[in-house]
Design brief:
single chain, 910 residues, mainly beta, nine-stranded antiparallel β-sheet, eight-stranded antiparallel β-sheet, 64 strands, 42% strand, elongated
C-alpha cells in the first residue's frame, strides 16, 4: 500500500525544485484496476487547466482527458476507461500521451504494462522514450479488489506494487507498518511479512531513515511483494521484503534497525541477512553501498560490514582513513566472494570480541577475517545500510535480518523416550500409526549459570498430516530447569524419518543444538480377496456369467483386511462398460473404515451380451499404502429365442404348409405358438404377420406379443379363410432383450371355393336342370310335391336362394316360397301355394343360390299346364293320386332321405 506522506513528499519536491510549467507533463498514472477499468491520475505539479486534450492509449484503444479539465496541485482524479469495453482484464499496457501522436516517443508522458510480456500496444514507444525498461517488461496482474499502484518515483516495473486497499481519488493513508521485530539480545530477527505493501521505511515502527539530500524522498526503502524469479539462496517462507532504491544523489542514504543492548560479558554475535541486487553497482563508483554493524561511540561511529561493488562482496572495516571514516579499527577491505546479481544471496557478518576480529561469508562459504579495534560501549549496537553518496545508484532487496550473540556457559539438553536415553544424533524407532504420546518423550533443559533463562526452538522434519507441532518441542525464555513433553500427533506416514532439531539458547546468547531421528517403520499393504459364492476370484481373473443374470445371483463378496493395528482402509471400485445395466460403483467402494470389512454388490443385471466388465479395486490404508485388484465379468453370447408352432398337440415343421378348406376359421386350426429362450431372465418380443389378408379378419396382433419373460404361448383365434384358392404365409420373428432373434414361418393354403348346388325333386323324383314338368290343370303346387335342396361343400358356408317365376298371374304361385335368406347349408325349400289353372302355359322357375363367398349356382325348370283326363301317374313316380292338401307319405320320405344323404356327404368332405 502507498504510504500516507507521498503527496507531501511531492509538494516538498515542487518547493525545493525550480518552478515547473503547469502542463500535462506533470500528470502521472498512479493506480490501475484492470477488473473495473479504473485509472487514477495524479498531478505532480502546480495547478493548471488543460489547454489541449491528453490521451490514454491502451491495447490499441484511445480515450481522451478533455481540454478544459482543471487540476489542482497534488490532485488525484479517478477516470473510468470505456472505449471498446475498457481495459483488458488480464494483460494490457496503458500510457498517457500529451498528443495523439502515439508513435512519437517524446509525446509519451507516463504509464505501465501489466499481466504478461506479450506485445499489447505501445511498449516499444515507451521503451524508446526511456519510460519503460523493455517492451517485454510488465507488472504482475492485480488480484480481485487490488490495484497496480505507482510509488511516485521512477519508470520501471519496480516502481509499481500491488495495492490491497485501493483509495481511488485520494492519496493513500496508510498506518505505520510493524516489522516482525524480535531484534533483542541474545537473538532475534526482523522480517517484513506484516508490513503493508508500499510502506516507506520511516513508517515502519522502530526503524530510522536518514536522508538529508537535496531531493528528499527520491531515496526510498519499501516493503514490496514482487513476482521475482526465485533463484539463489532465498529466505524460507518469505513473500515480502524491503526495496532499497538508492538514487545517485548527494545524500547520506542510510537507514538502521532499532538499537540492541547486549548483556554483560559479550563474547561474539553474528548478523545474517539476504540481499537481491536488481540494479548492479557501477564499476566507476567512488564509494560503494555497504551493510554494516555500528557500535556506540558518541553516535555509533564504530563500523564494519560487507561492501557491494560491481565485482565483489568485500569485508570492510571503517577506520579513520576510510570513506566514510570510522574508528572500528584500522581501515581495511578484502574480497569475500564474487558479486552475484539478480539472485538471492545470504550474507553473514560475525564480530568476535574475544579475538577482536570480524568475519564475513557469502552463501555459507568460507569466512574471511579482518582485525577490529572496538572503542566505546561495545554492548550497544545496530544494523545499518549506508548508500554512501554519489555515482553508486543501485536497487537492492533485503530480507530476513537476524542476529545471535553468546556469553557465559551454554545450556544443557537431554532427551529420553519411554525412560530410555536418546543420544544426540540417535534414532528412536516407532511403528507406523503409533502416536507421539506413546513415546513418552521428555526434553530436559538445564543451564549451569545461576539465574539463567533458556529458550528451546524445535522443529520436526517431514511433517505433513501427522499433526505433530513444532511448538510442543519449543519454549520461550523461561527459568531452568524444565521439561518439554510433546504429545500431539500420530506417525501416520510409514517409512519416513522425522528429524527433530532442537536449538537451545540461554539469556547470555549461548546456543547448543541437539538432534535425533524418529524412524517410522514400513506398514503392510491392505489385502483384497474376492469370492463369487464359494469360489475364489483370482486377481486379474474372470467371472463367467450368462446374459440376463443378476449381479445378486453371483453372491459376490469383496473382503478387506490389513495386518497393521488400528488401520483404516478406503476401498475405491469401478466397473467398466456400464450403460444401462444398473451396476453401482458405490457398491464396490467404501469410505475409510476400520478393517476387516466386506462389500457385497447386488445392484444390476448383465443385460448386454458378449461384453466384459472390468472391476477395478484399490484399497488404500490410512498410511497411504494402496493395493490394486481387478477381475472381469465375462458375459456369454446370448442364445437365440426359439419358436415352436403346434396344431393341436402336434408340432408343425418350420416352413411347413397347412392345407385348409375355404371358410376354415383360425380358431378351428387350434394353433399354439410357443416362445422360449435359454438365457436367464430373457424377455422376448414376438412379431407375427399373416400375408394376403383382406377380408378374412385375421389379426397380426394375435400372432404377436410385447416383450414378455419367456417361455409363453400365443394362441391366435380371430378370422376365417373366406377366400378360396389363397395362400397365407405366417412369418414369426422372436427377438430377446439382448437383440438376438429367431424366426419361424409356415403357410396356410386355402382350397378352391366351390359354388353352391341346387337340386329339385317332384314327388321325390329328381328334376333335371332345364327340364319342363307337366302339371295337370287344376292341380295344386302342393300336390306336385316340389322340393328344392340347396347345399355347399365349403366349410361353414351359408347360402341364400333367389327365385323368379314366369307367367304367374292369378294362379297364386308365389316366388318367395322358392327363396331363402342366407342360411347354413344344406337346407330344403318346399313351395306349396298356388293352383295351375291356365292350360298351355309354362311357368319357368329360375333359381339362383349365392354363398357367403359370393359364388353362385343356378337351376332352371319349367312347369307346363296340361288338360287333365283323370288321374295319371307321373313319369318315374308313384301312382298315388294327390288331391287337395293330402300328400303321400312315401314321396315325403324320399325327399327327406335324399336330403340326409347329401348332409352326410358334406360332413365327410369337411
Amino acid at each position: 500500500m502507498r504510504f500516507s506522506f507521498r503527496a507531501g513528499v511531492m509538494l516538498i519536491l515542487l518547493t525545493l525544485s525550480a518552478p515547473l510549467a503547469a502542463a500535462i507533463d506533470d500528470l502521472r498514472i498512479t493506480e490501475v484496476s484492470p477488473s473495473t477499468d479504473t485509472v487514477e491520475v495524479y498531478n505532480s505539479g502546480p495547478a493548471f487547466t488543460q489547454a489541449t486534450d491528453a490521451y490514454f492509449f491502451y491495447s490499441d484503444n484511445t480515450q481522451p482527458i478533455s481540454l478544459g479539465t482543471s487540476w489542482t496541485a497534488g490532485e488525484y482524479k479517478t477516470i473510468v476507461l470505456t472505449v471498446n469495453g475498457g481495459l483488458n482484464p488480464t494483460i494490457s499496457d496503458i500510457w498517457l500521451y500529451r498528443s495523439p501522436n502515439y508513435n512519437t516517443a517524446s509525446e509519451l508522458v507516463h504509464g505501465m504494462k501489466y499481466g504478461g510480456s506479450a506485445t499489447t500496444g505501445k511498449e516499444t514507444v515507451a521503451f524508446a522514450a526511456g519510460k519503460w525498461p523493455t517492451p517485454a517488461t510488465y507488472v504482475p496482474l492485480p488480484g480481485g479488489g487490488q490495484t497496480a499502484a505507482w510509488d511516485l518515483f521512477g519508470f520501471t516495473q519496480y516502481d509499481w506494487y500491488i495495492d490491497a486497499t485501493p483509495t481511488f481519488g485520494t492519496a493513500d493513508s496508510t498506518p505505520p507498518g510493524a516489522v516482525t521485530d524480535t531484534l533483542a539480545w541474545p537473538s532475534g530477527s526482523s522480517t517484513f511479512e506484516n508490513v503493508s505493501l508500499g510502506n516507506d521505511i520511516t513508517n515502519i515502527q522502530n526503524w530510522v531513515l536518514v536522508d538529508t539530500g537535496a531531493i528528499p524522498g527520491e531515496y526510498t526503502v519499501r516493503a514490496v511483494n514482487d513476482s521475482l524469479t526465485v533463484t539463489g539462496t532465498r529466505p524460507a517462507g518469505t513473500t515480502q521484503w524491503l526495496r532499497i532504491r538508492d538514487a545517485n544523489i548527494v545524500d547520506q542514504n542510510r537507514f538502521y534497525s532499532p538499537t540492541i543492548t547486549a548483556a554483560v560479558g559479550l563474547g561474539t554475535y553474528t548478523w545474517t541477512w539476504y540481499v537481491y541486487i536488481e540494479q548492479p553497482i557501477s564499476g566507476s563508483a567512488a564509494t560503494k553501498p555497504k551493510f554494516v554493524i555500528q557500535h556506540d561511540n558518541t553516535g555509533f561511529f564504530n563500523a564494519w560490514g560487507i561492501e557491494l561493488t560491481s565485482t565483489n562482496f568485500n569485508l570492510v572495516v571503517l577506520g579513520a582513513t576510510s570513506t566514510p571514516a570510522g574508528i572500528g579499527g584500522t581501515a581495511a577491505s578484502t574480497s569475500i566472494a564474487s558479486i552475484l546479481n539478480n539472485q538471492w544471496v545470504k550474507l553473514d557478518l560475525t564480530a568476535n570480541f574475544d579475538t577482536n576480529q570480524v568475519s564475513g561469508r557469502v552463501n555459507n562459504g568460507t569466512p574471511v577475517n579482518l582485525n577490529i579495534n572496538l572503542t566505546g560501549d561495545k554492548l550497544i549496537y545496530r544494523w545499518c545500510y549506508r548508500g554512501e553518496g554519489t555515482d553508486n545508484a543501485a536497487t537492492i532487496l533485503v530480507d530476513d535480518i537476524s542476529m545471535a550473540g553468546t556469553t557465559g556457559q551454554p545450556p544443557v539438553v537431554g532427551v529420553t523416550a519411554n525412560s530410555l536415553p536418546v543420544t544426540n544424533g540417535g534414532t528412536v524407532n516407532v511403528a507406523a500409526g503409533a502416536t507421539l504420546a506413546s513415546l513418552n518423550l521428555q526434553i530436559n533443559v538445564t543451564d549451569p549459570d545461576t539465574g539463567s533463562t533458556v529458550s528451546v526452538s524445535g522443529t520436526v522434519s517431514n511433517v505433513t498430516t501427522q499433526g505433530i507441532l513444532d511448538s510442543q518441542f519449543s519454549s520461550a525464555l523461561m527459568a531452568d530447569p524444565y521439561t518439554l513433553s510433546p504429545t500431539t500427533g500420530t506417525f501416520n506416514v510409514p517409512s519416513v524419518n522425522h528429524v527433530v532439531d532442537l536449538t537451545v539458547t540461554d539469556n547470555q546468547g549461548n546456543i547448543v543444538t541437539f538432534s535425533f531421528t524418529i524412524a517410522v517403520a514400513a506398514n503392510a499393504a491392505p489385502v483384497i480377496t474376492v469370492n463369487s459364492g464359494v469360489t475364489t476370484v483370482l486377481n486379474a481373473g474372470n467371472v463367467n456369467v450368462e446374459p440376463g443374470a443378476t449381479l445378486a445371483s453371483l453372491l459376490m463378496s469383496i473382503n478387506i483386511t490389513d495386518t497393521d493395528p488400528n488401520s483404516t482402509v478406503t476401498l475405491v471400485g469401478s466397473v467398466s462398460n456400464v450403460t444401462t445395466q444398473g451396476f453401482l460403483n458405490s457398491e464396490f467402494s467404501q469410505t475409510s473404515l476400520a478393517d476387516p470389512f466386506s462389500r457385497t454388490p447386488n445392484a444390476g443385471t448383465f443385460t448386454v451380451q458378449t461384453i466384459s466388465h472390468v472391476v477395478s479395486l484399490t484399497a488404500t490404508d490410512n498410511f497411504g499404502t494402496a493395493t490394486p485388484f481387478s477381475f472381469t465379468f465375462v458375459v456369454a453370447t446370448s442364445a437365440a429365442p426359439t419358436i415352436v408352432v403346434k396344431q393341436g398337440a402336434a408340432p408343425i415343421a418350420n416352413a411347413a404348409t397347412i392345407n385348409v378348406l375355404a371358410g376354415t376359421t383360425i380358431a378351428s386350426l387350434n394353433l399354439d405358438i410357443d416362445v422360449d429362450d435359454s438365457d436367464a431372465n430373457a424377455a422376448v418380443t414376438l412379431a407375427g404377420s399373416v400375408s394376403a389378408i383382406t377380408t378374412e379378419g385375421v389379426l397380426d396382433s394375435e400372432f404377436s406379443s410385447a416383450s414378455t419373460l419367456a417361455p409363453y404361448t400365443v394362441s391366435p383365434l380371430t378370422g376365417s379363410f373366406i377366400v378360396g384358392s389363397t395362400t397365407h404365409v405366417v412369418s414369426l420373428l422372436a427377438t430377446d432383450n439382448f437383440g438376438v432373434s429367431g424366426t419361424f414361418t409356415f403357410t396356410i393354403s386355402v382350397g378352391t371355393a366351390t359354388p353352391p348346388t341346387i337340386s329339385v325333386t317332384r314327388k321325390g323324383v329328381p328334376v333335371v336342370d332345364g327340364s319342363v314338368l307337366e302339371v295337370i290343370q287344376s292341380s295344386t303346387l302342393l300336390s306336385n310335391l316340389i322340393s328344392i335342396t340347396v347345399s355347399d361343400i365349403d366349410v361353414g358356408s351359408t347360402v341364400s336362394l333367389a327365385a323368379s317365376i314366369t307367367n304367374v298371374t292369378t294362379q297364386g304361385i308365389i316366388a318367395s316360397q322358392f327363396t331363402s335368406t342366407a342360411a347354413a347349408d344344406p337346407y330344403a325349400v318346399n313351395p306349396i301355394s298356388g293352383i295351375f289353372t291356365v292350360v298351355g302355359i309354362t311357368h319357368t322357375v329360375t333359381l339362383t343360390a349365392t354363398d357367403n363367398l359370393g359364388l353362385q349356382g343356378t337351376f332352371t325348370f319349367g312347369m307346363r299346364v296340361t288338360k287333365g283326363s283323370g288321374p295319371r301317374q307321373p313319369p318315374g313316380g308313384d301312382c298315388t293320386a294327390i288331391s287337395g292338401a293330402q300328400t303321400s307319405i312315401a314321396p315325403l320320405a324320399a325327399i327327406i332321405g335324399a336330403a340326409l344323404v347329401r348332409r352326410r356327404r358334406k360332413s365327410k368332405a369337411r
